[in-house]
Design brief:
It is a single chain. By secondary structure, this protein is α/β, with parallel strands linked by helices. It folds into two domains: about 190 residues, Bordetella uptake gene, domain 1 (D-Maltodextrin-Binding Protein, domain 2, 3-Layer(aba) Sandwich); about 120 residues, Periplasmic binding protein-like II (D-Maltodextrin-Binding Protein, domain 2). It has 14 helices and ten strands. Strands 1, 2, 3, 4, 5, 6, 7, 8, 9 and 10 form a ten-stranded mixed β-sheet that branches. α2 crosses α12 and α5 runs parallel beside α14.
Amino acid sequence: MICASRILLCLLLTTPALTLAQDYPYRPIRIIAPNPAGGGFDFIARVVSQKLGEQLNQQVVMENRTGAGTMVGTDMAAKSTPDGYTLLVGGLSNIAANVGLYKKLPYDPLVDFVPLGMVASYAYVLVSRKDLPPQSLRDIIDFARANPGKLTYASGGVGTGQHIGAAALAQITGVKMLHVPYRGAQAAHLDLQSGRVDLFFDNASTAKPFVDDGRIRAIVVSSAQRFPGLPTVPTINETGVAKLDMEAWFGIFGRSGTPPAVLKCLQAEMAKVVQAPDVAKRFESGGGRVLRMSAPETDAFVKAEIKRWSNLIRDAGITTD
């Protein structure tokens, strides 16, 4: 197979591993997206599965496995056979944030998974229903402070980046808002646009079309720099109301215990995926920032993000209750 020929260049591999690499992949590979269709996990899985399949000359299928925020799909991947045929879209929420959110996770991101490569990151944007009276972040925070629990904010599920971002913003500014979790971003947007919920801290690329056609209003973006797709929308830090720099990052992860030859194959192929001009165009046209990191850089990045967000969430007292 294509991948096997590249693995033969790895001189340190043992003979049994080389034999396995020569056979890999001999059947379809699946990539689990632990959230419903329409969100960031789903988009990453679709783009990567298509490109990886082309490169490997093998079918790569994506599968939405939803439930309990991102935990059902992530745990399924964590308990899959470590053979390189089940991969996971891992991101800020299921790999980093959940460590702080849950006292007992059914999986351990540092023990159960190996990062195969980062893919892309996206800014979040705080959006509101179009007729919400407060129209700036300062006005929203002032209203929430004067009316504890009256403002509602949606998320695509408990423990998602959407939940963490809004909860962190509320904690930093010292206000109380009511969390309304949904099963995915599409359901949350439907209720936001119909006025059933007030706010949504969503992926900027997902929210942009609804902002552009006036169905919702953009308040602030979470990234350090303004989001190119919504250039007039200030960052949180620019407003002076709070200090928060946050992006939703996504990568592809394999099971710990997968043969080293197969891991090396997948890491090499993922590096090619993010270098491909057509892949970069798809992510960047949707407002994403392509992440090109070496294997050591990827490993260090994931460990640092787990430490950063688990500590922030615990220190802030953010829970899944």
